[in-house]
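Q: Structure tokens for this one, please.
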Amino acid sequence: MSDKIPNSPKPQTSIFSPVVMAIVAAAVVIGIALGMGLSTSVTSSPENVASRQYIDEMAPNSQICVQYGASAVTMDARFFVTFNPFSVYVSRPKMQPGCVLRRTDWAILDQRNLLSPEQERECKNSMNTFAFTGDLRDSPKIDCVYRNDAAGNLFLTQAGATSQSQ
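A: Here is the predicted structure, written as tokens:
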């Protein structure tokens, strides 16, 4: 007879063992806690405009702006073009909070006598709308602005897949 002992079955280890599941659960809980901690520690400041809510709060006359239009970031820059040699120069943009009114809500500017009939006629004839910076009670800067949707929102396209020719 042979002295060999038949092979006894080896215990199979499952990846769903209680120890593995406990480690995975702990990692998920720690990950969620870290994510919540990091997201609540983001501070909104002029150096870190992180949300639409911050832009809405900083808009001039924010309650009026949200009710009758949309808050915006305005950029004032000057462009200089030379022709011999041909070059384009741009000044450093000045960024400030602003508000774009819906075409149907110009009355808010009329009620405060902030528009001349000529300004309103010119803007209406061009199918544009008004935008402003500064407090409506303290000489705001009002401009007739044109909506340009032709450029598209490149934040919504896949990275590197722009349709514009360069």
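A few notes: The longest strand covers residues 69-76. The chain has a mean pLDDT of 79.
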